[in-house]
């Protein structure tokens, strides 16, 4: 659902966000969220049993069996990064399936856009300064990423004996036989929840589930906030009521309040209690946005909502 509120706008910001850390059988490593691709990277390079890499199938199995635990949950839907498959075509301008400056694969997007590296060839095919010494000069919050070749989880459909790979040393993408040993790194769909995340909470009549009332019944709405690792960080706060306009078949926002103050621990407290709501459907939306600019920024918005129906 898209919220359009008078005086506020929604926009996206592409960045790599350090969410915190997660623990697996390999230890405790950084969790890094790509707001553009909506995936989370686990900052651990799997090097295989003897430290020089592993075959494609072994790395697929490793990622599928990976479990990473944060203070909030255990996540198990890991996989190798994906690549846009197609007939092998080399080039340098980023429009081909193989070569340099390709950002359509998740590894390429990380290398060129997320981390801001350049490859050993520019878009014109000319060698760059990083040709000697390696091109992985920017690693951001990654601590275990290597200037080496990593398998993609995408099979080369033209010949299943090959898979796609990406070289973080040179910034190039191509195919390789699946019996070769390369490194592996895992990604998880979505933004994982860690102890650093703010957690807004809104309840209707003391609960989180949808509430069904008869006209004249009392409705009490309460809010709370756990700031996580963002205590005292300045943020936009939003409390919005949406009601359903049956004649227009759309949700209509009616902002209750919006303000900008640093985050703090807010114990659950009632904000109103009333019996005046007429027949209809309502959503109460409560959230904080860590980009304090008076706009909805989805990549940094933490929110909760509760649904109320009056019959």
Describe the overall structure.
The protein is mainly beta and 311 residues long. The protein has two domains: 16-189, no CATH class; 199-310, Immunoglobulin-like (Sandwich). Helices cover 6% and strands 42% of the residues. It is built from two helices and 19 strands. It has helices at 56-65, 106-114, and strands spanning 16-24, 27-34, 39-46, 68-69, 74-75, 90-91, 98-100, 149-155, 162-167, 172-177, 184-189, 199-204, 211-213, 219-226, 234-245, 250-262, 266-274, 280-289, 301-310. Strand 9 (162-167) and strand 10 form a beta hairpin. The radius of gyration is 24 Å and the shape is elongated.
Structure characteristics:
311 residues, 2 domains, five-stranded mixed β-sheet, disordered N terminus
Apparent shape = elongated
Order of helices and strands: EEEHEEEEHEEEEEEEEEEEE
Helix content: under 10%
Number of domains: 2
Care to give the gist of this entry?
Helices cover 6% and strands 42% of the residues. The protein has 311 residues and is mainly beta. The protein has two domains: 16-189, no CATH class; 199-310, Immunoglobulin-like (Sandwich).
Write the layout of secondary structure elements.
Elements (H helix, E strand, L loop, with lengths): L15 E9 L2 E8 L4 E8 L9 H10 L2 E2 L4 E2 L14 E2 L6 E3 L5 H9 L34 E7 L6 E6 L4 E6 L6 E6 L9 E6 L6 E3 L5 E8 L7 E12 L4 E13 L3 E9 L5 E10 L11 E10 L1
Parallel strand pairs: 6-7, 13-19
Antiparallel strand pairs: 1-2, 2-3, 3-11, 4-5, 7-10, 8-9, 9-10, 12-14, 14-17, 15-16, 15-18, 18-19
